[in-house]
From TrEMBL:
GO terms for molecular function: ATP hydrolysis activity; ubiquitin protein ligase activity. This is RNF213. It comes from Mytilus edulis (Blue mussel). It is an enzyme of class 2 (transferase). Gene3D superfamilies: P-loop containing nucleotide triphosphate hydrolases (3.40.50.300). Keywords: Acyltransferase, Transferase. Transmembrane segments: none annotated.
Amino acid sequence: MLTLCTAMGIQLGRDPDKTYELTTDNVKKMLAVYMRFKCEIPVLIMGETGCGKTRLIQFMCALQATEAERISSTAFENIVIMKIHGGTTTRDIIEKVTQAEKIAEKNAKDFPTLFTVLFLMRLTLQRLLEQSKRSCVTKHLVVNRLNCTRI
Ligand SMILES: Nc1ncnc2c1ncn2[C@@H]1O[C@H](COP(=O)(O)OP(=O)(O)O)[C@@H](O)[C@H]1O
Ligand SMILES: [Mg+2]
């Protein structure tokens, strides 16, 4: 926890989730993800179902939110999770991106060092290809780009 907090510029304080087992491996992965966030590089996490991808990101976000809340005494929402499935449409994705952009803009204004995560779950390569064949997600995101660089 000390390593993680030091690297993320967080004062060692409240554990945001006591039920989360913080292993050395998890800390290394969080640091790798954090470096990419700092450089505004989108992160793709791959792994079998149940290996801990979602909890890892949720813990990272909770850790940052806890620090922001400690300093500013305001509650922060810094993660938007979207489950991708066969019925997900381009419009669904655009709506979630727009929602995340709004939250990210607010967070950037209220607490500039806080990052906001849009977590797309079950985004398989096959699904991405299917979606882009239907001429949508990737095309839309490339053409319109994200308005807010804080996501
Ligand atoms: N470090 C951890 N400590 C405690 N429970 C964990 C940890 N990582 C994952 N889990 C638990 O394992 C299960 C699967 O984790 P999850 O993050 O949903 O996996 P994935 O997103 O890779 O499918 C969940 O019940 C989650 O709460
Ligand atoms: Mg998951």
